[in-house]
Design goal:
The complex is a heterodimer of chains A (about 300) and B (about 375). By secondary structure, chain A is mainly alpha-helical. Chain A contains 11 helices and 2 strands; from the N terminus they run H-E-E-H-H-H-H-H-H-H-H-H-H. In chain A, helix 9 packs antiparallel against helix 11. Chain B is α+β, with helices and mostly antiparallel strands and about 375 residues long. The longest helix of chain B is centred in the middle third of the chain and has 18 residues. Chains A and B meet through helix 7 and helix 8 of A and strand 6 and helix 2 of B.
Amino acid sequence: MAFVALGGSAPEVAQAPRRTGGRIALLLLLPGIFYLALFFLTPLVSLVLTSLKQPDPSGVIGRYDFGFEVGNYLYAITQYLPQILRSFSFALIATVIALAVSYPIAYFIAVKARNRPLLKGILLTLVVAPFFISMLLRTFAWKQIFSNDSWIVNTLKDIGIFGVDSYIIGTNFAVIFGLVYNFIPFMTLPIFSSLDRLDLRLVEAGSDLYANPVTTFRKITFPLSMPGVISGTLLTFIPISGDYVVASRDFLGGPETAMMGNVVEANFLRIQDYPTASALSVMLMAAIVVLVSAYVRRSGTEDLL
Amino acid sequence: MATDFTARGADLELVGIRKEFPGFVAVDNLDLRIPAGEFFALLGPSGCGKTTTLRMIAGLESATAGKILIGGKDVTEQKPHQRTVNTVFQNYALFPHMSVLDNVAFGLKQRKVADPAAKATAALEMVELGHLANRRPQQLSGGQQQRVALARALVNRPALLLLDEPLGALDLKLRRQMQIELKAIQMEVGLTFLHVTHDQEEAMDMADTVAVMNQGRIEQMGAPEQLYDRPKTAFVAKFLGQSNLFVGDVASADDTKVSISFRGHKLTAPADRVEKRSGKIALGVRPEKTMFHEQKPAESADHNLLGPGTITDIRFTGVSNQYQIEVPGIGEVTVFAQNVGKSPVVELGAEVWVSWKVEHSFGLADLPSGEEEAE
């Protein structure tokens, strides 16, 4: 099951299920099944049906009839291929950068600050602190910080790195920066939780068995933190692929940075081309499921603990 | 890496090793020499500094002062991965994400030894786990994990093998079995073993030499028989087995015998088994060397005699009976009597005398704690 890796803690070695527990377990599952059926399956079916609709003969904008118009998918791909590719490449780049930034933070909090509860508490609070403020506000704050007459842009112009008409907002840099910034906590926390459970005696055993610190990290620490790395990258990659705030023109994006989320938003809310928007959403979902299952299978999380 | 790996054990020397942690001294100016090929046990209660000593030898802890020499070479400044030392950790510390075979081959691969898989397999076969090579450590029982940990360390043929309470997590039967196997393996491979334990029976059973450690210092060191027969301090007398200790002023001392007067009784020990011959000293005897009598025996120069007293407690332990005898004005004396068929020999509350041969007495260099204030 591809999404096992999402649940931060590694699954315990399965105990043989007792027969009497089976019925109770089923009862306990019922609310969840009901919830998923109502709020996941129904919209999903509705989304797929919408993606196959055809325009109403009356020609009224935003009015569609049920049909089997597979051409909607073809249209969506040909029309929005750049945005589709951009979504996944931005998501990939932002995920890699977020991992590179988050791992050392998580490592420091979980390992170096392990015996200092106060420091650990403060650092963890700092990691979570951005959640106290709305993501929209924080992204908007970056728009101000990077705006064309901001201190940063002016300074860059003054020292000659930037030309007179250079800018940050609307560039790929600004969007990827915003994505990384917004998703760092989602990357840091699962990795922290993995490293927090890392038995440091295993690291000592590695160095006792002639592995230098770099090898010890590569062969022991990092592999044992893989569940956290997988969770973190999934929790980052998936939402970023569908993100429509950061890359929007109202925030850090520009005409050249639109991602799939922005296209879906525009088609649903502005152009009212529901079939195309639905087709894009279905494709996004399918692509993520395929990518993520391949990723989880390749990284072999089932081997870990 | 310019590290030479000896096929046989090397000797270990600690010179004035000291380790301070914030607020206390864990190891206090320790000097120790373990000859190559010896099975050496460091025995002490928890918190005595034995594990800290072992970790300093492994390089996992840095010494505050002093020097560590392995095979005559100063390794004090070397990092753990540079030292020709391997450790069997208390909790085994097997890598959960690797197979048993990969665990055992880990050290060989780091040192780029040729054909690590074959050597690791051979090591696993030595501990009779060849058939489990592809399992994960967590699929093995505690005893099997313990053997994997041993194989993982031994396969590197370290100059010195450190064992940190390696049998502590096993049940009694398995522990006894592993003690025998460990000793057999040590004799077979001829490596130097340093075994850290709080189990005095384990230490005496396996080691050639035992060092009893207390509060960061070595109290006494020697062959197990020697330590048991002739403890020199009250701590050793009490920690290594049990002892009856009697404190009194020296009444007479010559070249053959030292006697103390102990609350109206005269207790004697051979002069060569006494550490101190003047002032107040403690004289002791092991409970299994004592016997009791239902009639007062004739006084004789080669026996010490206490009594009469009352039996206040009898504990049946299988091979022997342990009697507590309360002698008025003297206190408790413990007597072990071998269970040879007619037990209990005497009933609870019976009046008995306790005696032992003078040659079984020993005199300590210090007094049991609390004794000075009490007198």
